[in-house]
Each structure stands twice: as structure tokens, then as C-alpha cells.
Amino acid sequence: VEWQSQEISPATTMKVCLLTGVSGTIGYAIARALKSSGEAWYIIALGRRPPPPSITEVDGKPPERLPYDSFLKISDMTDEAAVSSALDGHFESLKGSDDTMQLDRLDLLINCAGCSLGNDPIADVSAEAFRTVMEVNVLVPFILSRYAMVKMAASCGGGRIINIGSIAGESPRLHSVPYTTSKFALGGLTRALSVEGQHLARTTKTDGDGIVAVCQINPGNVRSSIMSAEEAARREREEGFVEVMDLANYVATVANLPNEANVLESTVMPTRQPLVGRG
């Protein structure tokens, strides 16, 4: 089912969202959910590549429109200067848009992009692979969050940052050292940023008394094209899956909360997935 767009009147103040990970199943679903959530969201997607046809096509046909308004292709998301330059340039271009839309602002950042680089035993994990996972899963959210907090403080007096984590940060699977470590680290970044967001003027060295709500949502099993058929069958049999749009709609619900309310950390998982129980 395609997402349902909203009719936006000229007087509507659009909220602006930065979203990573739209080339993946969860990120693309989040974009669809935001566009269908009842709020007027202008979504700027950014990353190394746009979503492939395997994600965007509906019944084998390309969608009439994509669930985001612009895509910034940045070949190296760990290059802070390149990221900042691309974002600054894009926001500058938005100043020439319809004045009533006020798009030179930032209300929401969703850090959804991530990687795992396989499931190898520790003996086969190189320092290079470990570093790559940490950079994608922790350094990139830091770079974007730093940019976002300053932009939010300057443009609209606050906002919200949502980091997409994983239950791996609470309960690791075998052979997941880089990925699990990165998700534990993301949890620490989320909590530290949450404190920073409570003192926005001091932490961004700007005027005003706004706040940025920072939270983390940890998905359990979600069907993905990168999962092997054998692993998907095993998880379906033993643990179950969360439908990706159920997860995405939850993210959209949190995104639409007032900044004065925060869900610091939450887990969305299949009811049958083992996490807290013991045999």
C-alpha cells in the first residue's frame, strides 16, 4: 500500500525532518509513516544512495511519488565537513522557497542508517571492520546530532532527535561484537545528548530557552531484505517478527509528540522474541 499524502494549504507551517537510512527497509517505512501521520512533514533524506526499486516498488511498479521531498547524496557520511557543507547548501536553497512554508528550519532528526558487516566470530573480526561499524552506527549519529542541535536552536528554538538502536544493545546475539558494541555506544550517546538538549542555549552557545528531546527506539526482529531466507525462517518459527510499518508508525507517533514530552528509551519487539525471560 502506498503512503497517503496530506493536502498542504499555503498557510501550513511545515515541520522539517532529516532522515538517514531510507535505502533500508526501516528508514523507508519511517518516511512513509511520517508522511501519513497527520502532521505536515518536509523530509530531507540523506545518505550514500537512494532506496533501490526492491524497496520503493509497489506490486512491481514504481511509486507515483517517493515519501520524502529531497535526497542529499553524500558519499562519506563520516566526513563532517562534507555533511555540514551539503546540509548548509540545501537549507540555503530552501530559503528561496515559498515564504509561507518556512523550510529553512529543522524540527526533527532521525538517525536510522546503520550496518553490521556480517555475523563473524571474534577471531575473524578485523579492527578495520570494527572501526567501520562504529563509525557508521555511532560517529555518523554524533555528526548529525551536533549539526541538528545547533540548527534547531537557531531556527525554531528546539526539536527532537530519534536514534534507532537495537535490542542487541541490551541482549547480544552470538557473533555480533561490532554491531552490539556500537548499539551500546549509541545508547550512551542518546543519554548524553538528552542532557545536552535540556540545556540547549548553553550547549549550542545560542540565545533562547528551547529544548531538544532526544530518545532511542530499539527494534527487535524486523523483516529485511538483507536477512537470509534460512535465518528469516528460523526467526519466524522461534521468535516472530514485528511488521515494519507497525514499528514505523510508532516512530512517527514519538516524532509528533511535543518537545516537552520524551520517551527516553523504548523497545518494539515481537511478543514471542526472547529477551527478558529464562527457561
What is the strand tally? 7
Spatial ordering of strands, largest sheet: 3-2-1-4-5-6-7
Oligomer: single chain
Q: What is the averaged pLDDT score?
A: 90
Percent strand: 5-15%
Main beta sheet strand tally, sense and closure: 7 strands, parallel
Shape: globular
Distance between the termini: 40 Å
Q: Which descriptors apply to this entry?
A:
279 residues; alpha/beta; seven-stranded parallel β-sheet; 8 helices; 7 strands; globular
Describe this structure in a few short sentences.
It is built from eight helices and seven strands. The chain has helices at 25-35, 53-56, 80-94, 127-155, 177-198, 200-204, 229-238, 244-255; strands spanning 15-20, 41-47, 70-73, 108-111, 158-164, 211-219, 265-268.
Task: Describe the protein.
This protein has a seven-stranded parallel beta sheet, with helices on both faces. Helix 2 (53-56) links the parallel strand 2 and strand 3. The protein has helices spanning 25-35, 53-56, 80-94, 127-155, 177-198, 200-204, 229-238, 244-255, and strands at residues 15-20, 41-47, 70-73, 108-111, 158-164, 211-219, 265-268. By secondary structure, the protein is of the alpha/beta class. Helix 1 crosses helix 8 (244-255). The relative contact order is 0.14. The chain is globular and about 50 Å long. The protein is built from eight helices and seven strands; from the N terminus they run βαβαβαβαβααβααβ. The model has no long low-confidence stretch (mean pLDDT 90). 39% of the residues lie in helices and 15% in strands.
